[in-house]
Amino acid sequence: MDVVLSENQSILQQATRRFVEAEHPVLATRKLADAGEAIAASAWQSCAAQGWIALFVPGAHGGMAEEAEGVIDAAIIAEELGRQVFAGPFASNAVAAFTIAQAGTDKQCAAHLPGLVSGETQAAWCFAGTGAQGGLEPGELTFSGNQINGAAGFVENGASADLLLVSARDGQGLSQCLVPTDHPSVTIEPLRSLDLGRGYATVRFENVAVDAGAQLGAAGNAGTLFERQLQLALVLQCAETIGLIDRAFEFTLEWVRERHAFGRPIGSFQALKHRLADHTAELEAAKAAVAYAAKAVQNQSSDAAIAVSIAKSQCGKQGVEIIRDCVQMHGGIGLTWEHDLHFYLRRAVANQSLLGTPAMHHERIAVLAGIEGETA
Amino acid sequence: MNLTVSSTDNLISTEDRDTEDERAFRLKAREWMHGKLPPRVVGQPFMDWDDKDLIETDRKTQRVLWDGGLAGITVPKEYGGLGLTRRHETIFGEEAMPYRLAWHLGNNYNIVIPVFLGHASEEQKQHYIPKMLNGEHIWAQMTSEPSGGSDLFGLITRAEKRGDKWSLNGSKIWTTGGEDSDIGLCLARTDPSLPKHQGLTMFIVDMHQPGMTVRPLTLVNGTRDFCQEFLDNVEVPLENIVGEVNGGWAVASTQLASERAATSRGWFIGAGASLPREQIEIASEPVKLAQELGLAETQRAKQIVGEVIALQALRELVAQRAGKGIDAGTLPPTTGGVASLANSTLNQHASELMSELAGPCGVTGPAKGGEPDPGIDRIWLFRIGGGTAEMLRNTISERHLGLPREPLPGKDVPFNQLKTNAAPTGA
């Protein structure tokens, strides 16, 4: 995160680190993966009790948004979660709570937000297409005649959620609604996931009728809020990647200092030192970009959209590049199941590919910079 | 070749943080510079040693600042400075944004003053520092030699005491602005029978005296910013040494540390490279190039353009982060080198992508936007100049990451028994 934090943010960072190290270390993710299970509902509730979702929810509905800088604070948390490859549904619930708090009626807020804040309700966000281009824009879902049709791909936490936040194309616009996962015309198909600590699903909607009480905001008018949701999700993803790289880099540094070959610590060989120096530089640039993006999204700056795509470009590319090289520097041990590195690498690769690949974000940056216009 | 002056759009002023005393300083600086300094011209090189008028302009600018009591902001008063704080320097930089500053005198304030404050005699400080601040002297650093660049302390320029003079023989190279400098700091070997770090001494040398031949080097792109010097029995008064005889290593270490520190905080005072902006600066050249080449609608061009914009923005963001963190004490000072390396790597990548975007139009003339070039500029500027990227990687890995040093087999061997690229003269 930023190199200068407020006192409250420092406290949040330290408290979150202690909590996650004690309650949800990477070992917990490993145990869930070995058992083929998702995080227990009670375990997620104990996380939510830390106030993680409350950041986005006003006091009137059980939250503390008034006392928080929601996006920046959540990014601080996400970074800590990345350090231990946390296996719980933080981003999906955060985006849902943020969206409902922004666009929901009092009744909708009262119905859903307290449950999200306490963790008793879990949400997932359905918007992406199901193909290789899915993730950065609204995909195949349509909203027409008060019915949702189509499929949403790569839905994080889809199989464990109670509530679906749906973003669907509505003529030229975009509509958003809330649909319970137990709706009879909703089918949830869990997907196999490279990331062993996070589940994804394809969610299919077949003539899912949505009454007015389930629509979020005015029909066809959700485009601006959708962009902010996407920005929030990307900030959290990138901040998490920073945590992944930071931690993997820490134990790689420890390893190259202690591991000896040819009578020397392997960390004294330039072949490794120079790569580690390069990674340090790229990581520092990634941190700078994420800190800037978090602030820009928090303040709704006019460059927030481009800022998150710059962050995603750097985090997406370098998360994988650096952690893969951490595996390389560990040699054979880095390839074993028992070493934690593969959990970090899997999450980094997943984060690179979801919510738009770096190349997709490069296209987005060019368009935001006016490449399609007459003049730059 | 040259780093050019960038736009000052969206820079955030820290004026609202001024104390009463700082406010007075700000207003004094603002008032004095108004109408007296040349304007800042975006795209103009910070330095161009072939442009003699620009060098003269910079000398005059330094004189104007001196006359207005604005030179040497953090330099102690007894040596002609103002004895003020880094905060005052920031304020000055903000107020100087509309102007061109004395950027050809960068060695004076970035390197030679810190070296003098750390190692020179009281007499030397009183004699030389005011002349550095009033624009009378431009200083050069004569450090690298043709026989070895990165292995600085393996240098072979010889200094021998002959009667009441030192006599220097050898050659120096990569001296920025050597031809137009007045005085140089010159590191030479005074005792080859000692191990290589121990037999060195730092000399103050007149650049235009008998025995000294200064020859500009023409680089691949035609620029002539660097010189090679040939020293043929150059005589130096006995008192013209900085620090102790055979104590040059300590002086040179301060010199190198000052260079690193200045590079990381932005070499050119008032250049604004690491000042926070209100908005990300979006590079416009890639969009323009794609449009001019008729590629703007293609996915390939969009991907390249977007990535170049990202890389250029990251260069600024990482510099700002390092500056802010170092100032606040939340990042170690060594982060400056990390930001430098990031700058070099990101820029290299961006340049390669621009070449890829231009394709055949980038290698044939008449090219859109300047002479076709094989990419020498980016190699020099970011990967060799001011110390190679390889040395920077050593520094980062050893000082920032705390990794063990490479074993140095010749460390305790007398220098004249070491294998070098040329036999030491004398001894």
Task: Write up what this structure looks like.
Chain A is of the alpha+beta class and 376 residues long. Chain A folds into 3 domains: 7-121, Butyryl-Coa Dehydrogenase, subunit A, domain 1; 124-216, Butyryl-CoA Dehydrogenase, subunit A, domain 2 (Beta Barrel), CATH 2.40.110; 223-368, Butyryl-CoA Dehydrogenase, subunit A, domain 3 (Up-down Bundle). Helix content of chain A is 51%, strand content 15%. In chain A, the strands form 3 sheets. Chain A has a 4-stranded mixed β-sheet with strand order 1-4-5-8, covered by helices on one side. In chain A, strand 4 (163-170) and strand 5 (173-180) form a beta hairpin. In chain A, helix 4 packs antiparallel against helix 8 and helix 7 runs antiparallel to helix 8 (270-298). Chain B is of the alpha+beta class. Chain B folds into 3 domains: 15-137, Acyl-CoA dehydrogenase/oxidase, N-terminal domain (Butyryl-Coa Dehydrogenase, subunit A, domain 1); 140-256, Butyryl-CoA Dehydrogenase, subunit A, domain 2 (Beta Barrel); 280-386, no CATH class. The radius of gyration of chain B is 23 Å and the shape is globular. At the A-B interface, helix 7, strand 10, helix 8, helix 9 and helix 11 of A face helix 7, helix 8, helix 9 and helix 11 of B.
